[in-house]
Amino acid sequence: MGVVIIDGSTVRSFVDDEAQFKKSVDEAFASLDLNNDGVLSRSELRRVFESLRLIETHFGVDVATPPEELTKLYDSIFDKFDCDQNGTVDKEEFRNEMKKIMLAIADGLGSNPIQMALEDDDKNFLKQAADLEASKISG
Ligand SMILES: [Ca+2]
Ligand SMILES: [Ca+2]
């Protein structure tokens, strides 16, 4: 358990580092593709957001949101990811939309850093962004 400080530029430089971002997203994709069929289904994608905790922090949804409301929300998120609307999210769709989301978070953070408490083994993208920045500072 640690606390990381994240601001818009931290997130932005993470996304801008294409090789690193692709690696992180591909790793996340692989771990989420539970049945290893190369695409994410609705329920698989839902786990992304449950694990990232983006819903609570960035979509302005109360934690006490009724399950049916949450399902609607996750459905609308899925539709955003599923660009070609074929009912599954492939790697490219996942990466493109994650990039948009991360940049939207970066815009939202601006130059007002936030503190995030994270588990050490957290795969949270925001922690990875912070780690990347830390590694650059320390050389
Ligand atoms: Ca799958
Ligand atoms: Ca698709």
TrEMBL record:
Statement: the UniProt record of this protein carries the keyword Calcium: yes
SMART domains: EFh (SM00054)
Segments forming domain EF-hand: 20-55, 69-104
Keywords annotated in UniProt: Calcium
Source domain of life: Eukaryota
Pfam families: EF-hand_7 (PF13499)
SUPFAM superfamilies on file: EF-hand
InterPro entries for the chain: EF-hand-dom_pair, EF_Hand_1_Ca_BS, EF_hand_dom
Molecular functions per Gene Ontology: calcium ion binding
Protein name, per record: EF-hand domain-containing protein
